[in-house]
Amino acid sequence: MSHARGVPASVSDSAFPGIDYARQTLAVAEADIRKLIHDPVELLTRMIQPVLWLLIFGQVFTRTHAIPTGGISYLDFMTPGVLAQSVLFGAIFYGISLIWERDIVHKFLVSPAARSSLVLGRAISSTVRSLCQMVLVYLLALLLQIHLHLSPLAIVGVVAAVIFGSAVFSTFSLIAACIVKSRERFMGIGQVLTMPLFFASNAIYPLALMPIWLRNLSRVNPLTYQVDALRSLMIVGGTTSFGLAPDFAFMAAALALLVAIATHLYPKIIT
Fold this sequence. Notes:
Elements: H1 9-15, H2 17-38, H3 41-46, H4 48-64, H5 74-92, H6 96-100, H7 102-109, H8 115-143, H9 152-180, H10 183-199, H11 212-218, H12 222-234, H13 244-265
């Protein structure tokens, strides 16, 4: 197939090697997304968790007024944290598919595709689940009359934060899968990781309430920066502790580091 000026596609692609890389990455992502479309049960079960947090935990703690939230209701304060938690819990177990699909992974590894494109493709596909959960959280928030920013720019920012967070934690999950190589051990590792990541963040209480050691730990936790960005972008009256630029810069740096590690470890899943 030729382009408008008669240049063969192969010649055009060699002039822009990034096109081939993007195609490889999107092909991996598309394969995973198709599986989700054909079997959406996991997605539906994951949606139960934010419902419970907002309808039960959030309603109860809103009445206690025990946690200082900077002039907004506790339900408003925790909604971005619940969204970030949904992203975390969905993405952190994403790597188990790598263990289930060793044969498919082997076929990808012997293909000409760059290893980093295999990692990024899976990271991109994980964001589809997270964006579906984002829609659910927004619908619940509207029903609960939470004060949301609904401007297009704010929603684009929320989408970006959700995508970054999902990519970071799904890539972290791939690294864990490459190391443990067993479904049973992976599920145990996933359970061990999710709770410390969640509670060592600002998802359900402000950083100021934490003891110093936990506050210092939270500053190297990507979830903290995702929640910080979401709270500023989602909630009317919500503020950011670090600034949106540092929030996104930290998530981007964490993603780059994790992709590099996962790319190195990826072949180990079949050995």
